[in-house]
C-alpha cells in the first residue's frame, strides 16, 4: 500500500473514531544526541491524554528510527535531546515524505538541541523556515487555554519560551518548542522535582499538541 494512503487511513481512524488504540512515536536519530532523554515523558503524556481527552492512544510509544518506514504507522512523532542531530539523505527523504503525507513532528529542545535541529530541518524543507507562532494560534487553545503561549518549565538561559512552526502547503507539519522543556515537565514527578502546577501545565500543553494533530487531519 502507498505510504501516504496508509498514513491517511491511520489519521482517519485516529481523528474520527478512536475505534482502536492509535500509537505515537519517539524519533531515534544519529549524530550522538540523546534522543532517548526523558524516558517517562511520552508514557505520562499518553496517560494524561487518555484520561482527559477521551483518546485511546496505546500506552506504549513506539521508538522509530527517522529513516524507517515504521514512521508511517503513526500520526505523531516526538523528537528531543540535548546535543547533535544528523539526518542522512535517506532520513531526509523519509521524514519529508512522512510530513508531506499528513504526519506531524513535535521537536522539544531539552537544552542544546537548537543549532543542530534547525540545520537538519532546513535540509528537509530548504524553502521553508521556522516561524514563531502567535499566541492566538489554535495549538495554544485546543482544550486548555494558554493565552501567553508556551508555559515555562525549566529556566535554562532565562529566556521566554517560544513555539516555532514549519508550514507546508498551509498545514503546520512541525511544532518546535524552545526554551520551554515540555518533555521534562511530562516526566515522573521525582525526576526533576517540578511542582504539581508546573507538571500539569506541561501536560496540558502537550495534550493541546496531541489534540491539534488529531483535529487538523
The run of helices and strands is: HEHEEHEHEEEHHH
Q: Give the strand content.
A: 15-25%
For CATH, the homologous superfamily is named as Domain of unknown function DUF4159
- SS-derived structural category: alpha/beta
Number of strands: 7
Task: Tell me the name of the CATH class.
Answer: Alpha Beta
The outline comes out as globular
Note down, in words, how this protein is organized.
- The chain has 217 residues and is α/β, with parallel strands linked by helices.
- It has helices at residues 3-16, 41-52, 89-100, 114-124, 182-186, 189-192, 196-215, and strands at 25-28, 62-65, 76-81, 104-109, 131-132, 162-168, 171-178.
- Strands 2-1-3-4-7-6-5 form a seven-stranded mixed β-sheet.
- Helix 2 crosses helix 7.
- The protein starts with a helix and ends with a helix.
- Residues 4-18 have low confidence and may be disordered.
Question: What is the compact description of this entry?
Answer:
This protein has 217 residues and is an alpha/beta fold. The protein has helices spanning 3-16, 41-52, 89-100, 114-124, 182-186, 189-192, 196-215; strands spanning 25-28, 62-65, 76-81, 104-109, 131-132, 162-168, 171-178.
